[in-house]
Amino acid sequence: MSYILLGILQGIFEWIPISSEGVVALVAQFLPGLKSPLDLALFLHLGTALAVLIYFGKDWMNILSFKDKNLLQFLIIATLISLAVGFPVYKLLKGVAIGAGLLLVMGLGLLFTAYFQRTSTAGKPSRPAGWLPAKLNLNPNQLAAICGFLQGLSVIPGLSRSGSTIFGLALGGVEPFQILKISYMMSLPVVLASSCYLFLENPILICESWRSLFFSFSVGILSLHFLIKISQKINFSKFALIFGILCLIGAAIEFII
To answer: Are 164 and 117 contacting, i.e. CB atoms less than 8 angstroms apart?
Structure first.
């Protein structure tokens, strides 16, 4: 039942700018029989990544057939930088203490997420021409590097991957729907690479969490279309700010106790 719950949470929270990884890792702390909450939270992204693959199947076909070379180049640069930044951050966070340490990291991450969402202009692009207009005079490679860096940092529990990349893409004035689509598509290559690493490091993980993967995929693909629509209309910065403050309060209580 614990794995099913975590899979459902991943399937829902992956699409909104509130850290699914942080939510899953935090909830996993209080469920019996679960080990390596950070690894499990990262691994469950594989289910929602498969949902991205199917939902945007036509776009992936265009990329793999080299019909959309610009987006292909963008994803390659963003992925390489994400992995270069994310891996050392992940290794560092492996040593973060369970409980207060995780709450503190998650709380700070969510405050950054709130900032990203509040300052993002994703819903108000300055120019709708093309998929990558230069709002800040950024060329595609520069924007890919920025988005890749932010995505790499989102290994930190609480720092929303989608919120960070939406903020980064908004710097280029990309159209709202394109921002969401590219943000979600950016996750697939990184998730595949990190899942392979996690499996090689801990093969038991996939045996124990296959139910979570199934539910993260099933719930994710059902909720993706709906959440894409409402994400264009609702600002989640207030939610992230409230959750971040609550996490910091919880961390302070844990340290005092």
So the answer is: no
What is the C-alpha separation between 37 and 94, in angstroms, rounded?
10
161 to 84, 151, 230: CA distances (angstroms): 16, 6, 18
Give the separation between CA 249 and CA 257, rounded to whole angstroms: 12
CA distance 123 to 117: 11
* 40 within 8 A of 212, measured Cβ to Cβ: yes
Tell me how far CA of residue 219 lies from CA of 3, 6, 37, 50, 161, in angstroms. Answer: 13, 11, 20, 12, 19
> How many Å from the N-terminal Cα to the C-terminal Cα in the chain?
30
Alpha-carbon span 120 to 133, nearest angstrom: 16
CA distance readout (Å), 33 to 114, 153, 200, 225: 32, 29, 22, 33
Residue spans per domain, the chain: 2-256
The reported pTM is: 0.79
- Rounded to the nearest 10 degrees, how much is the dihedral formed by the CA atoms of 100, 15, 90, 115? -60
Convert the pLDDT of each residue in 43-97 to its tens digit.
Answer: 899 999 999 999 999 999 999 999 999 999 999 999 999 999 999 988 887 766 5
Are the C-beta atoms of 147 and 85 separated by less than 8 Å? no
